[in-house]
Amino acid sequence: MTEENHLADRARKAEKIIARPTDFKVCEGCDSIVAARVATCPNCHGYRFDESPQAVTAQARLLGSRAQTSVVEEDLF
Ligand SMILES: [Zn+2]
Protein backbone atom coordinates (compact mmCIF):
# COMPACT_ATOMS: atom_id res chain seq x y z
CA MET A 1 0.00 0.00 0.00
CA THR A 2 1.41 3.39 -0.91
CA GLU A 3 1.71 6.12 1.66
CA GLU A 4 -0.98 8.07 -0.16
CA ASN A 5 -3.47 5.20 0.04
CA HIS A 6 -2.60 4.70 3.66
CA LEU A 7 -3.48 8.31 4.42
CA ALA A 8 -6.71 8.04 2.42
CA ASP A 9 -7.63 4.97 4.44
CA ARG A 10 -7.03 6.88 7.66
CA ALA A 11 -9.11 9.77 6.41
CA ARG A 12 -11.98 7.38 5.66
CA LYS A 13 -11.77 5.89 9.14
CA ALA A 14 -11.65 9.36 10.63
CA GLU A 15 -14.87 10.26 8.81
CA LYS A 16 -16.62 7.23 10.27
CA ILE A 17 -15.45 8.13 13.76
CA ILE A 18 -16.54 11.75 13.36
CA ALA A 19 -19.97 10.51 12.24
CA ARG A 20 -20.37 8.44 15.42
CA PRO A 21 -18.15 9.98 18.12
CA THR A 22 -20.16 8.45 20.98
CA ASP A 23 -19.05 4.97 19.86
CA PHE A 24 -15.43 5.86 20.61
CA LYS A 25 -13.17 7.39 23.23
CA VAL A 26 -9.63 8.74 23.31
CA CYS A 27 -6.91 7.07 25.36
CA GLU A 28 -5.20 9.62 27.60
CA GLY A 29 -2.06 7.51 27.63
CA CYS A 30 -1.28 7.29 23.92
CA ASP A 31 -4.01 9.37 22.20
CA SER A 32 -5.36 6.35 20.34
CA ILE A 33 -9.01 6.25 19.41
CA VAL A 34 -10.53 3.08 20.80
CA ALA A 35 -14.03 1.61 20.89
CA ALA A 36 -16.14 3.03 23.71
CA ARG A 37 -16.77 -0.46 25.12
CA VAL A 38 -13.15 -1.39 25.90
CA ALA A 39 -12.02 -1.22 29.53
CA THR A 40 -8.31 -0.78 28.87
CA CYS A 41 -6.45 0.55 25.85
CA PRO A 42 -5.38 -2.36 23.60
CA ASN A 43 -2.43 -0.25 22.52
CA CYS A 44 -0.82 0.92 25.79
CA HIS A 45 -3.01 -0.82 28.41
CA GLY A 46 -4.01 2.53 29.84
CA TYR A 47 -7.33 2.85 31.57
CA ARG A 48 -7.89 6.59 31.48
CA PHE A 49 -10.00 7.83 28.59
CA ASP A 50 -11.60 11.04 27.42
CA GLU A 51 -15.08 9.99 26.33
CA SER A 52 -16.37 13.39 25.29
CA PRO A 53 -17.53 13.55 21.66
CA GLN A 54 -15.55 16.76 21.33
CA ALA A 55 -12.29 15.01 22.22
CA VAL A 56 -13.06 12.07 19.92
CA THR A 57 -13.90 14.37 17.03
CA ALA A 58 -10.77 16.46 17.52
CA GLN A 59 -8.58 13.37 17.69
CA ALA A 60 -10.24 11.87 14.61
CA ARG A 61 -9.50 15.05 12.67
CA LEU A 62 -5.85 14.70 13.67
CA LEU A 63 -5.98 11.08 12.58
CA GLY A 64 -7.16 12.12 9.15
CA SER A 65 -4.28 14.52 8.69
CA ARG A 66 -1.41 12.92 10.60
CA ALA A 67 0.14 9.50 10.14
CA GLN A 68 1.39 8.94 13.68
CA THR A 69 -1.98 8.69 15.41
CA SER A 70 -2.96 5.09 15.79
CA VAL A 71 -6.32 3.43 15.75
CA VAL A 72 -6.70 -0.05 17.08
CA GLU A 73 -8.20 -1.61 14.01
CA GLU A 74 -9.80 -4.75 15.38
CA ASP A 75 -11.90 -2.84 17.87
CA LEU A 76 -13.24 -0.30 15.46
CA PHE A 77 -16.00 -1.75 13.35
ZN1 LIG B 1 -3.45 3.96 24.97
Feature tags:
77 residues, alpha+beta, 3-stranded antiparallel β-sheet, binds zinc ion
What does this structure look like?
By secondary structure, the chain is an alpha+beta fold. It has one domain (3-75). Helices cover 39% and strands 12% of the residues. The protein contains two helices and three strands. The chain has a three-stranded antiparallel beta sheet, with helices on one face. A hairpin with a 5-residue loop joins strand 1 and strand 2 (33-35). Helix 1 (3-19) runs antiparallel to helix 2. The chain is globular and about 35 Å long. The structure holds zinc ion.
Average predicted confidence as pLDDT: 86
Ligands in the structure?
Answer: zinc ion
The gyration radius over C-alpha positions equals 11 Å
Beta-strand content: 5-15%
Terminal CA distance reads 21 Å
Task: State the shape.
Answer: globular
The percent range for helix content is 25-40%
Widest sheet, order of strands? 2-1-3
* Main pleated sheet: 3 strands, antiparallel
Count of helical segments?
2
For the secondary structure, the number of strands is: 3
The low-pLDDT segments are: none
Structural class: alpha+beta
What order do the helices and strands follow? Answer: HEEEH
Total discrete domains: 1
